[in-house]
Design a protein that fits this description.
Elements: H1 3-32, H2 38-42, E1 56-64, H3 68-76, H4 89-93, E2 117-120, E3 123-131, E4 135-140, E5 145-154, E6 157-166, H5 173-203, H6 206-209, H7 216-221
Antiparallel strand pairs: 1-6, 2-3, 3-4, 4-5, 5-6
Length: 222
């Protein structure tokens, strides 16, 4: 590639990047609330109270052609050093998060309880609330981050709602604005992949995900 062509490609890329940054306020709401209805975006959820003064709130959602009990096991086993988060493992592992997204249900990670804690990078993820087949709330205190998964039946389908509440203590408004332009679209890329990953797994053949699926309810209740 000639020097002139390299400059043209670089200039085009720079112009495209600047355009995305400049136009971000126009599509920020879509970015923060990807897939969610207005009611889902504004409705309070259990877990919101854990970080009431959040600087950033996102609510993303997807419809899953499965009942909540088919989705729930995939949520229970998520985490660093567990079943991953069904997104881009290679990218998360650049930050040392030890994510390896499972394609099957792992029984050893199904016994989740409120108060359980797991390492995530150099921080700790804590299970703050758990309502089987309905709600899972986690918090990473060091990152000032609360995450809520909510399962809402919708006929034969289920709405899987994911909310994040994040605070940036000590960060100036100018720095927050710069941070948002970079981090918020990136978070959408990762979380939309996560939601689609959960959807694909939950909609699959239970016998392939876990041959003893019919015993899952008994195992979780024991």
């Amino acid at each position: 590639m000639t020097g002139r062509r390299i400059r043209m490609v670089s200039g085009t890329g720079l112009a495209a990047g600047l355009l995305l940054v400049a136009s971000y306020p126009l599509w920020r709401d879509w970015c923060l609330n990807w897939g969610a209805t207005h009611d889902e975006a504004v409705s309070p959820l259990r877990g919101d109270e854990l970080l009431p003064a959040a600087d950033l709130v996102t609510t993303r959602a997807i419809s899953v052609d499965a009942t909540p009990d088919r989705i729930w096991p995939w949520l229970l086993q998520m985490g660093s050093g567990r079943a991953g988060t069904y997104t881009y493992d290679w990218l998360e592992n650049l930050f040392g998060l030890d994510m390896h997204s499972a394609e099957v249900i792992l029984p050893q990670f199904q016994d989740l309880k409120e108060g359980d804690e797991f390492p995530i990078g150099h921080a700790t993820l804590r299970i703050e609330a758990l309502e089987p087949d309905k709600l899972l709330v986690t918090r990473v205190p060091e990152w000032h981050w609360v995450r809520v998964f909510c399962l809402n039946p919708d006929g034969a389908m289920t709405r899987l709602v994911l909310r994040n509440r994040i605070a940036y203590p000590g960060m100036s408004r100018v720095m927050q604005m710069r941070h948002r332009v970079l981090s918020e679209p990136g978070a959408l890329v990762m979380e939309s992949k996560m939601l689609r990953g959960i959807k694909t797994r939950a909609e699959g053949d239970p016998a392939q995900a876990w041959p003893d699926w019919r015993h899952l309810g008994d195992a979780m209740a024991s």
